[in-house]
Design goal:
This protein is an alpha+beta fold and 566 residues long. It folds into 3 domains: 6-101, Beta-Lactamase (2-Layer Sandwich); 104-258, Beta-Lactamase (2-Layer Sandwich); 389-562, Heat Shock Protein 90, CATH 3.30.565.10. The chain has helices at residues 6-10, 13-26, 73-112, 117-131, 171-176, 230-335, 341-349, 352-384, 396-406, 408-411, 436-454, 488-491, 511-522, 558-562, and strands spanning 31-33, 39-42, 50-56, 59-66, 136-143, 148-155, 182-185, 202-210, 213-222, 392-394, 421-425, 432-434, 462-469, 474-481, 526-532, 536-544. Strands 6-5-9-8-7 form a 5-stranded antiparallel sheet. It has a 5-stranded mixed sheet with strand order 11-13-14-16-15. The longest helix has 106 residues, at 230-335. The two termini are 107 Å apart.
Amino acid sequence: MKSFNLKKVLRRKDVQTALQAAMAAIDSSISIEDPQGQLLFGVNCETHTAVFPLILESQTVGWLKGSAQAAPLAPLLICILKQETQKKLLAQELLERYQEIDLFEDLSTQITTSLNLTDIAQLAIAELETLIPATSGAIFIVNPQTQTLDTLAQFGQAYAAQDYLHRHQELVQQVTQMQQGSIINDVPKTWQCSSCSCAFQSLIYVPLKAKKRTIGLIAIGNETPSPYNTEHLKLLSIFAGQIAIAIEKALLYQTSQTVARQAQAQAQELQQALQELKQTQAKLVQSEKMSSLGHTIAGVAHEINNPIGFVSGNLTLLQDYSRDLCGLLALYEQYYPDAHPVILDRAEEIDLEFLQSDLGELVQSMNEGIKRIKEIVLSLRNFSRIDHHQAEAVDLHQGIDSTLMILRHRLKIGDQRPAIEVLKDYGELPLVSCYAGQLNQVFMNILSNAIDALDQHATQPQIRIQTRLLDSEQVAITIADNGSGMPPELIDQIYEPFFTTKSVGKGTGLGMAISQQVVAETHGGHLDCTSQLGVGTEFCITLPICLSAVSDRPTDLRPALLYPTA
C-alpha cells in the first residue's frame, strides 16, 4: 500500500467537525498522532490513559489517544481513512482510464489519417511501448503468399515471431486459430530455444482480427519477473482492435493501388496494342498502295516502251530517208537547174529550201522527245524499283532526281504561287546499301509535303536538298522548304499513323509514319524534323552506308512489306 497522508485528511473541515462532535458526545478530549508521534489533531493531555492504533490494511497509519470512552472513535477514523483510500484509488483508476481513452483517441486519430502500413505500425508500436510495461514487443502480419509472419514494427530487442509463440507448432496456424488474446506468466522452458538469447518470463499476445479473419498478431514480453493481469490483456485487446482496423484499411488501400497499377499497365498494353494495330494497318495500306503503284508503273512503262521502241526505230529510218531525199533533190538542182515553171512554183509555195534545212532539226527534235519519254519511264522504274526485292548498293542522288522528275509537274507555276525553285547541294556520296524503292517513297513523301506547304507560300518558294557524308559509316540527306512551318506540339505527332494536318481527302496520315518505319526500322537510320512557324520545315535523313546493322532480319520480308508478290 502506498503511504497515506493522515495529516491531510484531518485538516478537512468535515472531518474536524465530526471529531469535535464525537468529543462532545463522550465529554473527553483526544489527540491523534502520526506513526512517529507527531501531534496532528487535538491536544496532548496527561489524562489520556488509553492509546488506540489506527490500522489500515495491516499498516499502522497513526495513533488515537484519550480516555477509555474514546475507544469508539478509532473505528470511526479507520472508516473515514478507508473511504479516503477508496476515493483516492477510484480517482487514480479514473485518471488511468481517462489517460487510456485519451491515448486511444490520439492513436486512432493518427493511424486513421495514414494509409501507409509501415507508418501505422510505427505509430502503434510507439504507443504500445508506453501503454503496458514490457521489455520487448512487436506487431506481426500474416503474409498469405509466403505463409509466414512478417514483422511490421517492434521495440526493445529484435525478436522473431517464433520467440513469442510456441516453437513446436506452425506459427501461422497458431495465429490464425487464435480466438482471443492470452497471458502466459512463467513461460515454460520448453518454449525457449537453447541457441537463442530469448528468456521471456511473461508474455501477452493478442490476434489482429478484421472482418472475422486474423491478419496478424501483437505480442509483448517481459524478461523480468513482472506478471501480467487481465487488465493488461483487456487493454491490449482494445488496442489490437483499433490497430487491426487501421492495418486492414492500409492493406485494402495497397490492394487497390496494386489493382490500379495493373489496370494502368493493362491500359498501356492495350494502347500499345492499338498503336501496333494502327501501324500494321498503315503498313498494309501502304503495302497495297505501293504494290498497286509498282505494278501499275511497270504496266505503264511496258505499254509505253513498246510504241516508243517502234517510233524510235522508225525515226532512225526517217532520218536516213530524209537525208537521202534531200541529197537527191540537191542532185536534181545541180543537173537540172532550169526546172519546169510548175515545179518552181510548187517549190516556192512549200518553201523547199526551208523544208530541207528544217527537216533534219525536226527529226532531231523528235529523237530528243523520244529520249525524254525514255528518261521518264526509267525514272518511274527507278522510283518504284519493281524489279528489285533485295537490298542493293545504289546512288541516292539518282533516286532523288527520279523522284523530282515524277514531281516535276507539281513544281511548275501554280494557281497561287510561282514555280518552286529546287536548290541542290549534292556532296560526294558512296553507293549506299539500301532498299531503293522504299527510300524513294520516303523522298516522295517528304517532297510532296514540302510542295503542299509551299502551295500557300506566294513568294519565292524554295526546296533545298543537301547530301553529305557524315563519316565513314553514315550519310545524311536534308530536305528543307521555306513554307508555312509547324507548331512545336505537332512535330511529335507527325509520325503517328493516320495523323494529318491536311484537309479531308488530301492526306491519309500514313506518309510520315511509313517513312519513319522505313528509315528507322528497315534501314537502321534516323528521321528527324525541325520546324518553325512562318520559316519552314526541315527533314534530315541519316542512313548507314552498309545495311549490316539490320541484316539479321529476313531480307525477303522487308521489301515484301511494300511490294508483295503473288
